Amino acid sequence: MSALVLGITGTSGSGKTTLIAALLRWYRQREYTVNVIKHSHKAITLEPDNKDSARFRRAEAGEVLVASPYRYAIMREIGNAPEPCLHDHLARLSPAHLTLVEGFRQEHLPRIEVYRPSRGEAPYFPADDSVVAVATDEPLDIALPCLPLNQPDQIARFILNLLRIDSPTGALS
Question: Which CATH class is domain 5-42+82-163?
Fold first, then answer.
């Protein structure tokens, strides 16, 4: 696994997506390129069933690329094939200074757990040795670094230091 990949983990509703969005804004303001991979256990739909691209998928196109002047998306039906691993998905992405991953908990990579004790849910970090820090909204008495969840700038800097990512003028990997 590339040293430039970091997972953001936590229970549903803990604030993972909000944190990732804040980190993306912070990094973009400083000219870092950051990719995101989000795993879902549910079927994903990117277009309504009545659109041409959905019809092409149903007609068993190998891949369907939908493009506009503003963005593009590539869709591939997996069918009965094994689900691609994180490494396979990383290989499809353009180079970046950092890739943040939400999900893929079965893959071993360093992770920051978003944990809110007030929600009453058990954290992953006591049993999950891939958690290298906890982003939280309350003080915790634990051995791991605790990062203030409401200060994404501190979390962003922690990630840069942890992964030894240089200034954005360096080469992308």
Answer: alpha beta
